[in-house]
Amino acid sequence: MRMVDLITKKRDHKALTNEELTWMIEQYTAKAIPDYQMSAFLMAVYFNGMTPEERSHFAFAMLHSGDVLDLSDIPGIKVDKHSTGGVGDKISIPLAPLVACLGVPVPMISGRGLGHTGGTLDKLESIPGFNVAESETQFKQQVQQINEAIISASGEVAPADRRIYALRDVTGTVESIPLIAGSIMSKKLASGTNALVFDVKVGNGAFMKTTEDARALAKALVGISKTAGVKSVALLTDMSQPLGITIGNSLEIAESIAILKNRGPKDVHDLTVALAAQMLVLGGKAASLEIASGLAEDALRDGRALNAFKQLITAQGGDASVVDDSRKLPQAKYRIAVKAAESGIVDQIDTNALGLAAMQLGGGRAKKDDILDLAVGLVLHKKLGTPVTKGDTLVTLHADTENVDAISNMVRNAYHIGDKAPKKTPLIQEVIRP
């Protein structure tokens, strides 16, 4: 085979075979195919797409470019969750212990954030001592013992995807559903889970801005899962405003603890329970979503989920006393109020702008090697549909410097205040199954 022939074939709207895609990924991983040829192929995919079969073969080829965990010696149906990411999305943190305490093994291999805030791993690292770099043996033992672990991927998981991901970032080919789906699935399937729940965000604070794009990605993800023999379901969830009331690493840990104490923002609680219900059904612990939701609510009320989070922290070397005293989490030096310039009702929020403000405070990465300030972030006092009087605090900035005038203005301008409440958008917009 020659790479130029595969590029030409995809350029001419023809589907590549499993053998061709496997050969291409093997050769690229071995550095026998140069970046400029892979860039040409990625651009051809960007414009011409892939068939469902190609998407699966592409994901599997990248999956098998590295290590694949074998969790078959862990009893039960292993279930993981993946979110496409959004501003204030901290759901994995309360979700894993909630599902684990109800008997479903949750082996999570998670990531770090690039953009508005840190990823799940960065947030967990704001807990003193929490170790996300467990070995494969430690990971498997922990899931066997307490049904949960959240760690970083090893350098040998889907190495082809790591190289292609970096290439997409500099060649204008990020926004391609086949490439996005292949990237996600090559890493998620490598974790050895039996079932997956996808949380696909849609709205101005999400990667997918339209329902049509979010639905297409969700269908691609569940389609690849089905081909792989992995049970799955995808939820399209609202990201037209931040999720919850905090944006920032330690702030989101504190909010997650509140959820596990059966308190906290309703949207975070409701989405956590909804995703938990899907995981419990896929994990064979409930016959229906209604029963599963009831089980999840009970575990939040009676403290089992909170206790499971303490177990997770302790098992990974962290200080579980933060659950009872959030002051042990990193604290910013200053609290700066951003006040409304007019009265009315919040009818629109530029969610991305709030995420960018958190990043500029130091809570997110503009570049991959940026060091995070785990203490900084935003606490929201007003969300969509909330009445506002001029001078009310819209947001409190948690900052390590008082020189945040530009960020304050950015946050103030992210709020549009009108004279009537916006139409309510359902938190869960659609459920997509194979």
Automatic annotation (TrEMBL):
SMART domains in the record: PYNP_C (SM00941)
EC number(s) recorded for this UniProt protein: 2.4.2.2
PANTHER family tied to this protein: THYMIDINE PHOSPHORYLASE
Signal peptide, first to last residue: none
GO molecular function, one term: deoxyuridine phosphorylase activity
Phylogenetic lineage: Bacteria, Bacillati, Bacillota, Bacilli, Lactobacillales
Subunit structure and binding partners: Homodimer.
The organism's place on the tree of life at top rank: Bacteria
Annotated InterPro entries: Glycosyl_Trfase_fam3, Glycosyl_Trfase_fam3_N_dom, Glycosyl_Trfase_fam3_N_dom_sf, Nuc_phospho_transferase, PYNP-like_C_sf, PYNP_C, Pyrmidine_PPas_bac/euk, Pyrmidine_PPase_CS
Chemical reaction(s) catalysed: uridine + phosphate = alpha-D-ribose 1-phosphate + uracil; thymidine + phosphate = 2-deoxy-alpha-D-ribose 1-phosphate + thymine; 2'-deoxyuridine + phosphate = 2-deoxy-alpha-D-ribose 1-phosphate + uracil
Record's keyword terms, sorted: Glycosyltransferase, Transferase
Enzyme class: transferase
Key word Transferase present: yes
Function: Catalyzes phosphorolysis of the pyrimidine nucleosides uridine, thymidine and 2'-deoxyuridine with the formation of the corresponding pyrimidine base and ribose-1-phosphate.
Cofactor(s) recorded in Swiss-Prot or TrEMBL: K(+)
Gene3D superfamilies in alphabetical order: Nucleoside phosphorylase/phosphoribosyltransferase catalytic domain, Pyrimidine nucleoside phosphorylase-like, C-terminal domain, Transferase, Pyrimidine Nucleoside Phosphorylase, Chain C
The name this protein goes by in its record: Pyrimidine-nucleoside phosphorylase
GO biological process: pyrimidine nucleobase metabolic process; pyrimidine nucleoside metabolic process
GO CC, one annotated term: cytosol
Domain Pyrimidine nucleoside phosphorylase C-terminal, residue spans: 345-418
Similarity field: Belongs to the thymidine/pyrimidine-nucleoside phosphorylase family.
